[in-house]
Amino acid sequence: MARTSRAPRADAARNRDKLLAAAAKVFGERGVDAPLEEVARRAEVSIGTLYNHFPARQDLIDAIFPMRLEALERVAEAALADPDPWDGFVCFVEGLFELQARDRGLNDVLARSYPASSELSGACHRGFVHLVEIIERARGAGLRDDFEAPDMVPLIWAMSQIIRETADVAPDAWRRFLAFHLDGLRADAARPVSAAPLTQEQVEGRPGDPAGSPGR
Questions:
Q1: What CA–CA distance (Å, rounded) separates 165 from 154?
Q2: Is residue 132 part of a domain?
Q3: Residue 79 lies in a domain
Q4: Which of 3, 164, 206, 209 is the most buried (most CB within 10 A)?
C-alpha cells in the first residue's frame, strides 16, 4: 500500500519537472506567448496535465523565471565590484541585454509588467534595487547626473523590441543601438533634458500593455 500511495506523487513530481524543462526551452526559443500545447508536447504529457500543475500561464512563468533572473544578480555583483563606476554601469547594461538576447522568454519578461503578487515581480524588484545602486555609483563618474533608474525602463522596452525583431536575422544588432545610447549617457556629452523621467506609477500602469495579465 505504501508503494501505491507514493507512486502518484512521484509521477506528478516527474511530470512537473518535465513541464518546467520543456517550458524553459519553448519560452526561450519562442517567448512567453508560445502555445502551451507545445510545452505539453515536448514534456510528453497531456495539456490537461499541464493545467493540473499550472492552471494559468502566469503560474508557469512564476515557476521558471525568478531563477533565471538570478543570473542578473551575478551581473549586478560584477558591476558593483568594478573599480570604475562607469565601466561597472556599462557592464551591467551589456550583461542585462546579453541575457535577454540569449533567451526570448526572459526578453519578454523584462519588458512587461506582472501582478505585484507574483514571484516574478519580487525578483524584478530585487534587480531594480541593484540597478539604483549601480546608477548612483556611476552618476558623476562618467554617467550623466540627470539619469535616473526609471530611465532604464524605456531602454529595456526599446531594446526588447530590437532583440525580438532582429533575433533571426542579425542577433547582435542590439549592440549597435546600445553603443549609440551609451554615448548619449556619458556625462561629457550631456545636454539638459526638459522632460521628467517616468514615475513608478507610470511604469507600472502604462496603457496598452498587452501582457499585464498573461492568460492561459
A1: 17
A2: yes
A3: yes
A4: 164
Nearest one of 201, 206, 20 to 112, comparing CA atoms: 206
What pLDDT, on the 0 to 100 scale, is given for residue 10? 85
Nearest Cα to 189, choosing from 148, 145, 157? Answer: 145
Q: Which domain holds residue 47?
A: 2-55
Mean pLDDT of 100-111: 92
Farthest-apart Cα atoms in the chain, separation: 76
- One-character DSSP codes across 23-57: HHHHHHHH-TTS-HHHHHHHHTS-HHHHHHH-SSH
How sure is the predictor about 111, in pLDDT bands with cuts at 50, 70 and 90? Answer: confident
Instruction: Return the C-alpha torsion angle 144, 145, 150, 155, nearest 10.
Output: -10
**DSSP type of residue 170:** -
CATH code at 28?
A: 1.10.10.60
Contacts of 163 (CB under 8 A, 6+ apart): 97, 100, 101, 104, 107, 174
CB distance 96 to 159 below 8 Å:
no
Quick check: 187 and 144 in contact, CB under 8 A?
Answer: yes
If one counts every other C-beta atom within 10 angstroms of the C-beta of residue 103, the result is 21
pLDDT of residue 216: 45
Interatomic CA distance for residues 112 and 203, integer angstroms: 10
- Residue 95 makes CB contacts below 8 A (sequence gap 6+) with 72, 75, 78, 79
Query: Measured between alpha carbons, how far is 109 from 123 in angstroms, rounded to an integer?
Result: 11
